[in-house]
Amino acid sequence: MSLAIETVDLVRTFKKRRGEVFSALDKVNLEVRPGEVFGLLGPNGAGKTTLIKILVTLLYPTSGRAIVAGCDVVKETDRLRGLIGMVSGGETSGYGILTVRENIWMFSQFYGMPSRLAKERIDGYLQRFGLAGDAKTKVNKLSTGMRQKMNIIRGFVTDPRILFLDEPTLGLDVHIAREVRAYIKEWMAENRDRNILLTTHYMAEAEELCDRIAIIDNGRIIACDTPAALRATLGKGGSFTLSLAPAPADASLVEGVPGVSGAYVAQTDGGAEGVLRFQLNDDTRLAEIFAAASRAGLTVREFSKRQPDLEDLFMKVVGRRLHEDE
Amino acid sequence: MKTNKFIAALRAIKARAYVRIVGGNRELSWMISEVGLPIISLAAYIFVYRSLGAPPQYEGLVVLGGAMIPFWVGVLWGMASQFYWEKETGNLDLFMASPMHPAWLLLGMATGGMFMSAVRALGVLAIGVFVFGVHFTPHQPLLLLTVFLLTLTALFSLGMAASSVYFLVGRLGLKLNMILMEPVYFLSGLFFPVNKFARPLLLIAAAIPLTLGLDGVRQLLLPRGLGIGFLSPYAEASILAAMTVVFTIGAVRLMRRLEAKGKRDGTMSLRWE
Questions:
Q1: pLDDT at residue B164, rounded to an integer
Q2: Which residues in B156-174 are b (16+ Cβ under 10 Å) and which e?
Q3: Residue predicted with more confidence, B151 or A310
């Protein structure tokens, strides 16, 4: 079985202004199988966009090899470009003076699509995404959400074999993002030869859509598997949240307890109360944590347990949360 | 989706030209900024010639110069600096990641640009004829059409070539546009016969397609005997044709180089990690 995407020891460096070399991708090895929605999860600056730019032929790798849809991204760009599509979150592409329908049509023509077929498909997609009423609205009059819907339609309208979605739901309202995810699933179900490579900041989105996920940080792939298998690496325990008063200064309270990982103080309420989060792979150790809190003079105000998710996994393998600002 | 390459190229050219042919004329504010404002300087020259008692044909010479302004504006702002804007909006990424050859993108921009500028030029001509009462006496219409079309192809192929050069200099290109406006207006003799220049200046002026084209069109649209010609229209048409070929080949090669450099240095996109 030939792979949809394969990268072998892919390296990309950039020169900074003072001559320093910054490594955006460091020996990335990926294998995406036909029919997969493959997720790339990582914080800002992890290398996700750089990887996508290489895979869609907009950037040369410094070394290594990348094959997409059977085409070498450096040597077979012309053939490859007809087989792929790309949509990025927060895109401002297109021309404000054209209407929604005209903009999508224009891009379809760059792929050589017969105009009539393009218009039929565009009308179908506009209907599907609730934009039919705005088909003749000029793009400079659209809201951010509507504009992103238009961009997403542009990605699908040429029916690419592999679609690269770089944070496609970034900044979208919850219901629009849900609509987009629903269509991605529908599109993939229609034809199992298709592929999507999706980068996202949203763990729930990755978990809902992706057959497999790679976690990337500092240009390196540090974990790659199905969401279920990745979660399973966290063990049978769970993710715990303790509300403590007063707020602990750091997570040292639980860090010495065997089986604890990914501990951090998530929120503090002016020092009066704090939320401590951690994973624990053996519930019987909870008594030790309560005892440690008591010894430190902390009162447990609230306690909860949930099944570990990808956010917990990310914390475990990367050592920090995906959204550091949370 | 298998499509004949020629058909695919025509579709891409048409689609990119559509932005200017349809979109560019959709908001009528251009009538003020791109026809109304140039008329002011054009009117000033007409009044100068009238006050000096110059033959009325000189007014036609000024109107023809004014009608060529939109073409030079189109070359600078609609062609040369276009890739800079396309990069800023994220369009360039999508254009380059699509299967169309970059030359079709350039040709689409040029075709649309020529049309858009021609509409504005017609506006200036109409004002010249109806407001200032200027008369033209066309002779050798086929040669006139040839010189005019070759002027457009030479100008816009220069714009295509400049677009890649401008892209490399980034925002500086916008300043370059400002710098290239007035000197080119002067050197191409928009409002006076260019043959009054001294020979060295004339040689520099002749390197600008606008100079040759305007001179040729004036010789073929204004009465003979005005003594305004610099070269024969045949010679001017030949030079313009050669310029078109050289600039077009240069533009495609530069575009490919730009693409390779952009992919190597990571300068083609705005968004990087």
A1: 86
A2: bbbbbbbbbbbbbeeeebb
A3: B151
Mean pLDDT of chain A: 90
pLDDT reported for residue A325: 45
CA dihedral B224, B228, B230, B234 (to 10 degrees): -30
A96 CB burial (10 A radius; 0-12, 13-18, 19+): middle
What lies within 8 Å, CB to CB, of A305 at 6+ separation is A238, A239, A240, A241, A283
pTM for the structure as a whole: 0.86
Interface contact flag, A86 B99, Cβ < 8 Å: no
Q: Does B90 touch chain A (CB under 8 A)?
A: yes
Half-sphere exposure of A285 (CA within 13 A, CB side): 17
| pLDDT tens-digit series, residues B103-131 | 899 999 999 999 999 999 999 999 999 99
CA torsion through residues B86, B90, B93, B96, sign: negative
Mutate to test the interface with A, among B98, B107, B267 (most CBs of A within 10 A): B98
Quick one: DSSP state of residue B56?
T
pLDDT per position as a tens digit, A173-224: 888 899 999 999 999 999 989 999 999 878 888 989 999 999 999 999 999 9
Interface touch A60/B263, C-beta < 8 Å: yes
The pair of structure tokens assigned to B20 is 């200017």
Q: Would you state the structure tokens that stand for residue A44, as one six-digit string?
A: 């800002």
Give buried/exposed letters for B17-42 (b at 16+ CB in 10 A, else e). bbbbbbbbeeeeebeeebbeebbebb
- In Å, how far are A277, A312, B28, B114 from A227, measured between CA atoms? 21, 12, 55, 55
Q: Which tokens is A71 given?
A: 């085409």
- The predicted complex's ipTM stands at 0.89
Strand partners, A197: A38, A164
Q: How many angstroms separate the CA atoms of A11 and A222, rounded? A: 15
Is residue B84 within 8 Å of B268, Cβ to Cβ? no
pLDDT average, residue stretch A163-170: 92
Residue A283 is predicted with a pLDDT of 80
Are A128 and A187 in contact, with CB atoms under 8 Å apart?
Answer: no
Are B1 and A113 in contact (CB < 8 Å)? yes
Residues 4-33, chain B, touching A (beta carbon < 8 A): 7-8, 11-12, 14-16, 18-19, 22-24, 26-27
